[in-house]
Amino acid sequence: MSDLTHLSETGEAHMVDVSSKAVTERVAVAEGRVIMRPETLALCLSGQAKKGDVFATARIAGILAAKKTHEFIPLCHPLLLTKISIDLEGDESLPGMRVTAMAKVSGQTGVEMEALTAASIACLTIYDMLKAVDRGMRIEGIALVEKRGGKSGDWTRDAEKNA
After folding, report:
1. Which stretches of the chain drop beneath a pLDDT of 50?
2. Which listed residue (17, 53, 91, 128) is catalytic?
3. The pTM is what?
4. Rounded-to-integer distance, Cα 143 and Cα 146, Å
5. Is 128 an active-site residue?
């Protein structure tokens, strides 16, 4: 358990003290997918969903979620994020939507949880916007793709696979 920084020696959960860490630029990228029927994807891409613009709504929801991550995840620090982006792409080969979220900060702790939260909520929002026509959609593949900066350095999912 010594690697789990949020636990005390007796196993109690605590917020990590990051006050002695250097302020550095930190970036994290996360992804997710919403798998749906081909006709649901076509509806989404056409902009004709009854609830409105799926892309704009999912993008805004993901951005808001990243900014509120510390309210959802008890031991996360509140961060002054300097950038959040949500990229949404229809993919007929799934069929479905690919979501990529990027969070950036100049701070003393990483933004992995913010990127993961943004991707998750963007996917959930896509589901919500389209559930009236396809309740069988599924959300999958929520994962950290890369992180840069901080004491532990850079990490990418692809590098880990190839190691």
Report:
1. 1
2. 128
3. 0.91
4. 9
5. yes
Q: Which of 134, 143, 106, 112 is nearest to 49 (CA)?
A: 134
What are 15's two structure tokens? 């917020």
Half-sphere exposure of 149 (CA within 13 A, CB side): 19
Place of tokens 């892309």: 55
The dihedral built from the CA positions of residue 74, 76, 81 and 83, taken in this order, carries a sign that is: negative
Q: Is 136 helix (H, G, I), strand (E, B) or coil?
A: coil
Residue 10, CA distances (Å) to 2, 73, 76 in order: 11, 22, 20
Provide the edge-to-edge strand list for the sheet that holds 83-91.
83-91, 96-107, 24-35, 138-148, 155-156
* Other residues' Cβ atoms within 10 Å of the Cβ of residue 45: 14
Cα–Cα distance measured from residue 108 to residue 18, given in angstroms and rounded to the nearest whole number: 6
Give the tens place of pLDDT for each residue, 42-58.
999 999 999 999 999 99
Residue 131 CB: number of other CB atoms within 10 A?
14
